[in-house]
Design brief:
The protein has 390 residues and is mainly alpha-helical. The chain contains 18 helices and 6 strands. The strands form 3 sheets. The chain has a two-stranded antiparallel ribbon. A two-stranded antiparallel sheet has the order 2-3. A two-stranded antiparallel ribbon has the order 5-6. A hairpin with a 2-residue loop joins strand 5 and strand 6.
Protein backbone atom coordinates (compact mmCIF):
# COMPACT_ATOMS: atom_id res chain seq x y z
CA UNK A 1 0.00 0.00 0.00
CA UNK A 2 2.77 2.42 0.95
CA UNK A 3 4.70 1.59 -2.21
CA UNK A 4 1.63 2.23 -4.37
CA UNK A 5 1.03 5.56 -2.64
CA UNK A 6 4.69 6.51 -3.04
CA UNK A 7 4.55 5.64 -6.75
CA UNK A 8 1.37 7.67 -7.18
CA UNK A 9 2.93 10.72 -5.52
CA UNK A 10 6.07 10.28 -7.61
CA UNK A 11 4.05 10.18 -10.84
CA UNK A 12 1.97 13.19 -9.81
CA UNK A 13 5.11 15.17 -9.03
CA UNK A 14 6.56 14.33 -12.44
CA UNK A 15 3.33 15.37 -14.18
CA UNK A 16 3.32 18.70 -12.35
CA UNK A 17 6.97 19.33 -13.21
CA UNK A 18 6.31 18.44 -16.86
CA UNK A 19 3.37 20.84 -16.99
CA UNK A 20 5.50 23.60 -15.44
CA UNK A 21 8.26 22.90 -17.98
CA UNK A 22 5.76 23.25 -20.84
CA UNK A 23 4.53 26.56 -19.40
CA UNK A 24 8.15 27.75 -19.12
CA UNK A 25 8.80 26.82 -22.76
CA UNK A 26 5.68 28.74 -23.78
CA UNK A 27 6.84 31.83 -21.87
CA UNK A 28 10.31 31.61 -23.43
CA UNK A 29 8.75 31.33 -26.90
CA UNK A 30 6.67 34.46 -26.28
CA UNK A 31 9.83 36.30 -25.17
CA UNK A 32 11.72 34.96 -28.21
CA UNK A 33 8.99 36.19 -30.57
CA UNK A 34 9.20 39.66 -29.07
CA UNK A 35 12.99 39.96 -28.84
CA UNK A 36 14.67 37.82 -31.52
CA UNK A 37 15.25 38.93 -35.09
CA UNK A 38 13.49 37.15 -37.96
CA UNK A 39 16.73 35.33 -38.78
CA UNK A 40 17.24 33.95 -35.26
CA UNK A 41 13.54 33.14 -34.93
CA UNK A 42 13.68 31.20 -38.19
CA UNK A 43 16.72 29.30 -36.88
CA UNK A 44 14.84 28.47 -33.67
CA UNK A 45 11.85 27.19 -35.64
CA UNK A 46 14.09 25.14 -37.93
CA UNK A 47 15.59 23.49 -34.85
CA UNK A 48 12.08 22.55 -33.70
CA UNK A 49 11.29 20.95 -37.06
CA UNK A 50 14.50 18.91 -36.89
CA UNK A 51 13.47 17.72 -33.42
CA UNK A 52 10.32 16.20 -34.94
CA UNK A 53 12.26 14.62 -37.79
CA UNK A 54 15.01 13.22 -35.54
CA UNK A 55 12.55 11.63 -33.10
CA UNK A 56 10.68 9.96 -35.96
CA UNK A 57 13.92 8.47 -37.29
CA UNK A 58 15.09 7.43 -33.80
CA UNK A 59 11.89 5.37 -33.48
CA UNK A 60 12.83 3.30 -36.55
CA UNK A 61 16.61 3.21 -36.34
CA UNK A 62 17.10 3.41 -32.59
CA UNK A 63 14.23 1.61 -30.87
CA UNK A 64 13.26 -0.99 -33.49
CA UNK A 65 16.77 -1.49 -34.86
CA UNK A 66 15.92 -0.97 -38.53
CA UNK A 67 18.17 0.94 -40.92
CA UNK A 68 15.88 3.17 -42.98
CA UNK A 69 17.03 5.99 -45.27
CA UNK A 70 13.69 7.02 -46.76
CA UNK A 71 12.83 10.02 -44.59
CA UNK A 72 13.24 12.63 -47.32
CA UNK A 73 10.56 10.96 -49.44
CA UNK A 74 7.94 11.07 -46.67
CA UNK A 75 8.88 14.67 -45.90
CA UNK A 76 8.28 15.53 -49.56
CA UNK A 77 4.82 13.94 -49.47
CA UNK A 78 3.85 15.95 -46.39
CA UNK A 79 5.31 19.18 -47.76
CA UNK A 80 3.63 18.98 -51.18
CA UNK A 81 0.27 17.85 -49.80
CA UNK A 82 0.14 20.64 -47.24
CA UNK A 83 1.31 23.27 -49.76
CA UNK A 84 -1.23 22.30 -52.43
CA UNK A 85 -4.10 22.28 -49.94
CA UNK A 86 -3.27 25.62 -48.31
CA UNK A 87 -2.44 27.68 -51.42
CA UNK A 88 -5.12 29.98 -52.76
CA UNK A 89 -6.52 29.05 -56.22
CA UNK A 90 -5.16 32.31 -57.66
CA UNK A 91 -1.66 31.54 -56.33
CA UNK A 92 -1.83 28.06 -57.85
CA UNK A 93 -2.70 29.56 -61.22
CA UNK A 94 0.38 31.80 -61.00
CA UNK A 95 2.65 28.85 -60.18
CA UNK A 96 1.29 26.48 -62.84
CA UNK A 97 2.03 28.58 -65.93
CA UNK A 98 3.64 25.87 -68.09
CA UNK A 99 0.83 23.36 -67.62
CA UNK A 100 -2.39 24.16 -65.72
CA UNK A 101 -3.09 22.33 -62.49
CA UNK A 102 -5.75 19.62 -62.56
CA UNK A 103 -9.17 21.27 -61.97
CA UNK A 104 -10.18 19.28 -58.87
CA UNK A 105 -6.99 20.33 -57.07
CA UNK A 106 -6.88 23.88 -58.42
CA UNK A 107 -10.03 24.92 -56.54
CA UNK A 108 -9.27 23.01 -53.34
CA UNK A 109 -8.31 25.16 -50.37
CA UNK A 110 -8.28 24.64 -46.59
CA UNK A 111 -6.57 25.83 -43.41
CA UNK A 112 -3.06 24.85 -42.41
CA UNK A 113 -3.91 22.48 -39.52
CA UNK A 114 -6.14 20.04 -41.49
CA UNK A 115 -3.78 20.28 -44.47
CA UNK A 116 -0.78 19.40 -42.28
CA UNK A 117 -2.61 16.43 -40.77
CA UNK A 118 -3.69 15.20 -44.21
CA UNK A 119 -0.06 15.49 -45.34
CA UNK A 120 1.04 13.38 -42.38
CA UNK A 121 -1.71 10.81 -42.95
CA UNK A 122 -0.89 10.51 -46.65
CA UNK A 123 2.80 10.03 -45.78
CA UNK A 124 1.75 7.31 -43.31
CA UNK A 125 -0.35 5.57 -45.98
CA UNK A 126 2.56 5.62 -48.44
CA UNK A 127 4.80 4.41 -45.60
CA UNK A 128 2.43 1.47 -45.06
CA UNK A 129 2.42 0.59 -48.77
CA UNK A 130 6.22 0.80 -48.93
CA UNK A 131 6.84 -0.87 -45.58
CA UNK A 132 4.67 -3.91 -46.31
CA UNK A 133 7.13 -5.42 -48.83
CA UNK A 134 10.33 -3.62 -47.76
CA UNK A 135 10.33 -4.46 -44.04
CA UNK A 136 10.81 -8.12 -44.86
CA UNK A 137 14.40 -7.14 -45.69
CA UNK A 138 17.12 -6.57 -43.13
CA UNK A 139 20.15 -4.32 -42.53
CA UNK A 140 21.84 -2.97 -45.69
CA UNK A 141 19.14 -4.29 -48.02
CA UNK A 142 16.47 -2.36 -46.12
CA UNK A 143 18.56 0.83 -46.22
CA UNK A 144 19.08 0.52 -49.99
CA UNK A 145 15.39 -0.24 -50.62
CA UNK A 146 14.09 2.70 -48.54
CA UNK A 147 16.63 5.04 -50.13
CA UNK A 148 15.45 3.85 -53.54
CA UNK A 149 11.81 4.47 -52.68
CA UNK A 150 12.64 7.98 -51.45
CA UNK A 151 14.29 8.71 -54.81
CA UNK A 152 11.28 7.23 -56.64
CA UNK A 153 8.97 9.56 -54.71
CA UNK A 154 11.15 12.56 -55.59
CA UNK A 155 11.25 11.62 -59.29
CA UNK A 156 7.48 11.08 -59.36
CA UNK A 157 6.95 14.53 -57.84
CA UNK A 158 9.30 15.98 -60.46
CA UNK A 159 7.31 14.47 -63.33
CA UNK A 160 3.76 15.17 -62.10
CA UNK A 161 3.70 18.55 -63.80
CA UNK A 162 -0.08 19.09 -63.51
CA UNK A 163 -0.16 18.22 -59.79
CA UNK A 164 3.18 19.26 -58.28
CA UNK A 165 4.38 21.76 -60.93
CA UNK A 166 7.32 19.47 -61.63
CA UNK A 167 10.87 20.74 -61.19
CA UNK A 168 9.64 24.35 -60.88
CA UNK A 169 8.23 23.62 -57.45
CA UNK A 170 5.72 25.72 -55.55
CA UNK A 171 6.33 29.30 -54.46
CA UNK A 172 4.41 31.81 -52.39
CA UNK A 173 3.13 29.37 -49.78
CA UNK A 174 0.73 31.15 -47.41
CA UNK A 175 1.98 32.22 -44.01
CA UNK A 176 1.04 29.70 -41.37
CA UNK A 177 -1.57 30.85 -38.88
CA UNK A 178 -4.12 28.79 -36.98
CA UNK A 179 -7.23 30.52 -35.68
CA UNK A 180 -7.83 28.94 -32.27
CA UNK A 181 -11.61 29.11 -32.49
CA UNK A 182 -12.01 29.51 -36.22
CA UNK A 183 -14.49 32.37 -35.95
CA UNK A 184 -12.44 35.11 -34.37
CA UNK A 185 -12.86 38.65 -35.71
CA UNK A 186 -9.87 40.27 -37.35
CA UNK A 187 -9.40 42.58 -34.36
CA UNK A 188 -8.54 39.55 -32.21
CA UNK A 189 -6.12 37.91 -34.64
CA UNK A 190 -3.10 39.16 -32.73
CA UNK A 191 -4.41 37.63 -29.50
CA UNK A 192 -5.72 34.13 -30.17
CA UNK A 193 -4.23 33.22 -33.54
CA UNK A 194 -1.22 30.91 -33.33
CA UNK A 195 1.69 32.16 -35.42
CA UNK A 196 4.47 30.16 -37.07
CA UNK A 197 6.65 29.66 -33.97
CA UNK A 198 3.70 28.69 -31.78
CA UNK A 199 2.45 26.12 -34.31
CA UNK A 200 5.88 24.55 -34.72
CA UNK A 201 6.68 24.30 -31.03
CA UNK A 202 3.23 23.03 -30.09
CA UNK A 203 3.85 20.30 -32.68
CA UNK A 204 7.29 19.68 -31.11
CA UNK A 205 5.85 19.33 -27.59
CA UNK A 206 3.07 17.01 -28.77
CA UNK A 207 5.63 14.91 -30.67
CA UNK A 208 7.93 14.61 -27.64
CA UNK A 209 5.07 13.67 -25.29
CA UNK A 210 3.73 11.13 -27.79
CA UNK A 211 7.08 9.40 -28.26
CA UNK A 212 7.81 9.38 -24.52
CA UNK A 213 4.47 7.68 -23.82
CA UNK A 214 4.94 5.29 -26.74
CA UNK A 215 8.43 4.18 -25.70
CA UNK A 216 7.49 3.82 -22.02
CA UNK A 217 4.42 1.75 -22.85
CA UNK A 218 4.00 -1.85 -23.97
CA UNK A 219 4.72 -1.02 -27.61
CA UNK A 220 8.00 0.59 -26.63
CA UNK A 221 9.03 -2.53 -24.72
CA UNK A 222 8.17 -4.65 -27.76
CA UNK A 223 10.18 -2.35 -30.04
CA UNK A 224 13.23 -2.65 -27.78
CA UNK A 225 12.86 -6.44 -27.61
CA UNK A 226 12.85 -6.60 -31.42
CA UNK A 227 15.94 -4.38 -31.50
CA UNK A 228 17.84 -6.64 -29.14
CA UNK A 229 16.87 -10.01 -30.64
CA UNK A 230 14.10 -10.61 -33.19
CA UNK A 231 14.06 -14.37 -32.70
CA UNK A 232 13.76 -14.08 -28.92
CA UNK A 233 11.05 -11.43 -29.27
CA UNK A 234 9.05 -13.65 -31.61
CA UNK A 235 9.47 -16.57 -29.23
CA UNK A 236 7.95 -14.39 -26.49
CA UNK A 237 4.83 -13.90 -28.61
CA UNK A 238 5.59 -10.50 -30.18
CA UNK A 239 4.39 -10.08 -33.76
CA UNK A 240 7.69 -8.75 -35.11
CA UNK A 241 6.50 -7.73 -38.57
CA UNK A 242 3.39 -6.00 -37.21
CA UNK A 243 5.45 -3.92 -34.78
CA UNK A 244 8.04 -3.05 -37.43
CA UNK A 245 5.31 -1.89 -39.78
CA UNK A 246 3.61 0.10 -37.02
CA UNK A 247 6.85 1.91 -36.16
CA UNK A 248 7.51 2.61 -39.84
CA UNK A 249 4.01 4.07 -40.34
CA UNK A 250 4.26 6.25 -37.21
CA UNK A 251 7.68 7.54 -38.28
CA UNK A 252 6.35 8.24 -41.79
CA UNK A 253 3.47 10.25 -40.34
CA UNK A 254 5.74 12.47 -38.28
CA UNK A 255 8.17 12.83 -41.19
CA UNK A 256 5.21 14.09 -43.24
CA UNK A 257 4.32 16.56 -40.46
CA UNK A 258 7.93 17.75 -40.36
CA UNK A 259 7.94 18.16 -44.15
CA UNK A 260 4.74 20.24 -44.03
CA UNK A 261 6.23 22.54 -41.39
CA UNK A 262 9.53 22.81 -43.29
CA UNK A 263 7.76 23.77 -46.50
CA UNK A 264 5.82 26.49 -44.72
CA UNK A 265 8.85 27.97 -42.99
CA UNK A 266 10.73 28.03 -46.33
CA UNK A 267 7.69 29.50 -48.15
CA UNK A 268 8.77 27.54 -51.23
CA UNK A 269 9.39 23.87 -52.08
CA UNK A 270 10.81 21.94 -55.01
CA UNK A 271 11.92 18.31 -55.55
CA UNK A 272 15.62 19.13 -55.08
CA UNK A 273 14.94 20.01 -51.43
CA UNK A 274 14.20 16.36 -50.71
CA UNK A 275 17.31 14.66 -52.00
CA UNK A 276 19.34 12.22 -49.87
CA UNK A 277 21.11 15.20 -48.28
CA UNK A 278 17.93 15.91 -46.29
CA UNK A 279 17.91 12.37 -44.90
CA UNK A 280 21.65 12.68 -44.22
CA UNK A 281 21.02 15.76 -42.05
CA UNK A 282 18.53 13.81 -39.94
CA UNK A 283 20.87 10.79 -39.68
CA UNK A 284 23.66 13.14 -38.57
CA UNK A 285 21.48 14.48 -35.76
CA UNK A 286 20.45 10.98 -34.66
CA UNK A 287 24.03 9.65 -34.59
CA UNK A 288 25.39 12.66 -32.69
CA UNK A 289 22.59 12.71 -30.14
CA UNK A 290 22.42 8.98 -29.53
CA UNK A 291 20.60 6.53 -31.72
CA UNK A 292 18.60 5.10 -28.80
CA UNK A 293 17.76 8.30 -26.92
CA UNK A 294 14.86 10.71 -27.42
CA UNK A 295 16.66 13.22 -25.22
CA UNK A 296 19.75 12.96 -27.40
CA UNK A 297 17.65 13.55 -30.50
CA UNK A 298 16.20 16.76 -29.06
CA UNK A 299 19.59 18.10 -27.92
CA UNK A 300 21.41 17.19 -31.13
CA UNK A 301 18.67 18.71 -33.32
CA UNK A 302 19.14 22.10 -31.64
CA UNK A 303 22.97 21.86 -31.57
CA UNK A 304 23.36 20.74 -35.19
CA UNK A 305 20.90 23.37 -36.45
CA UNK A 306 22.85 26.13 -34.70
CA UNK A 307 26.25 24.92 -35.91
CA UNK A 308 25.00 24.52 -39.48
CA UNK A 309 24.39 28.26 -39.47
CA UNK A 310 27.53 29.17 -37.54
CA UNK A 311 29.68 27.29 -40.09
CA UNK A 312 27.94 28.81 -43.09
CA UNK A 313 30.87 31.24 -43.47
CA UNK A 314 32.97 28.29 -44.69
CA UNK A 315 30.95 28.22 -47.92
CA UNK A 316 31.98 31.83 -48.68
CA UNK A 317 35.44 33.43 -48.82
CA UNK A 318 36.84 34.25 -45.38
CA UNK A 319 40.02 35.63 -43.85
CA UNK A 320 42.53 33.46 -42.00
CA UNK A 321 44.76 36.17 -40.59
CA UNK A 322 46.27 38.00 -43.58
CA UNK A 323 45.31 35.20 -46.02
CA UNK A 324 41.98 35.15 -47.81
CA UNK A 325 40.59 31.63 -48.08
CA UNK A 326 38.36 31.20 -51.16
CA UNK A 327 34.90 29.91 -50.44
CA UNK A 328 33.76 26.52 -51.68
CA UNK A 329 30.13 25.46 -51.57
CA UNK A 330 29.55 22.47 -49.33
CA UNK A 331 32.63 22.83 -47.09
CA UNK A 332 30.52 23.02 -43.93
CA UNK A 333 28.95 19.67 -44.81
CA UNK A 334 32.47 18.25 -45.12
CA UNK A 335 33.06 19.44 -41.54
CA UNK A 336 29.90 17.69 -40.39
CA UNK A 337 30.92 14.54 -42.26
CA UNK A 338 34.23 14.55 -40.36
CA UNK A 339 32.34 15.03 -37.09
CA UNK A 340 30.10 12.11 -38.02
CA UNK A 341 33.09 9.84 -38.72
CA UNK A 342 34.75 10.85 -35.44
CA UNK A 343 31.53 10.11 -33.52
CA UNK A 344 31.12 6.72 -35.19
CA UNK A 345 34.74 5.73 -34.45
CA UNK A 346 35.28 7.12 -30.94
CA UNK A 347 31.77 7.51 -29.48
CA UNK A 348 29.37 5.36 -31.51
CA UNK A 349 26.70 5.59 -28.82
CA UNK A 350 26.41 9.37 -29.32
CA UNK A 351 26.12 12.09 -26.69
CA UNK A 352 23.34 10.41 -24.69
CA UNK A 353 23.68 6.80 -25.82
CA UNK A 354 20.47 5.20 -24.58
CA UNK A 355 20.09 7.46 -21.57
CA UNK A 356 17.02 9.67 -21.15
CA UNK A 357 16.23 12.80 -19.19
CA UNK A 358 14.33 12.18 -15.96
CA UNK A 359 13.07 14.48 -13.22
CA UNK A 360 14.73 12.27 -10.60
CA UNK A 361 18.11 12.91 -12.22
CA UNK A 362 17.38 16.64 -12.62
CA UNK A 363 16.36 17.06 -8.97
CA UNK A 364 19.42 15.13 -7.82
CA UNK A 365 21.84 17.59 -9.50
CA UNK A 366 22.31 19.76 -6.36
CA UNK A 367 23.09 16.63 -4.32
CA UNK A 368 25.56 15.42 -6.95
CA UNK A 369 27.30 18.82 -6.98
CA UNK A 370 27.48 18.80 -3.18
CA UNK A 371 28.93 15.27 -3.12
CA UNK A 372 31.44 16.21 -5.81
CA UNK A 373 32.55 19.26 -3.78
CA UNK A 374 32.88 17.18 -0.59
CA UNK A 375 34.92 14.50 -2.35
CA UNK A 376 37.15 17.13 -3.88
CA UNK A 377 37.65 18.80 -0.49
CA UNK A 378 38.55 15.46 1.07
CA UNK A 379 41.09 14.74 -1.67
CA UNK A 380 42.65 18.19 -1.23
CA UNK A 381 42.80 17.76 2.55
CA UNK A 382 44.37 14.32 2.15
CA UNK A 383 46.95 15.70 -0.28
CA UNK A 384 47.78 18.57 2.13
CA UNK A 385 48.22 16.17 5.04
CA UNK A 386 50.60 13.99 3.00
CA UNK A 387 52.68 17.05 2.13
CA UNK A 388 52.79 18.02 5.84
CA UNK A 389 54.06 14.57 6.81
CA UNK A 390 56.82 14.77 4.23
Amino acid sequence: MMNALRTMNHDRRNQILTALAIVLVAVLLVIANMTLSKYHLRLLNLGGIYVILSLSMILINGFVGLFSLGHAGFMAIGAYTCALLTMEPAEKAVNFYLKPIVPWLGEMHMGFLPAMLIGGILAAIIGFLIGWPVLRLNDDYLAIATLGFAEIIRIVLTNLQTITNGSLGLKGLPKMEIDVFGLLPESMHGILVLNLSACIWIAVIITILFFVRLIRGSYGKAFKAIREDEIAAEAMGIDVFHHKLLAFVIASFFAGIGGALLGNIMQTIDPLMFRFLMTYNVVLIVVIGGIGSLTGGVLAAIIVTIFMELLRFLDASWMLGPVQVPGTAGVRMVVFSIILMVMVIFKPQGIMGRREFSWDWFLSIPTQIKEFSLNRSKKEASADSKKGCE
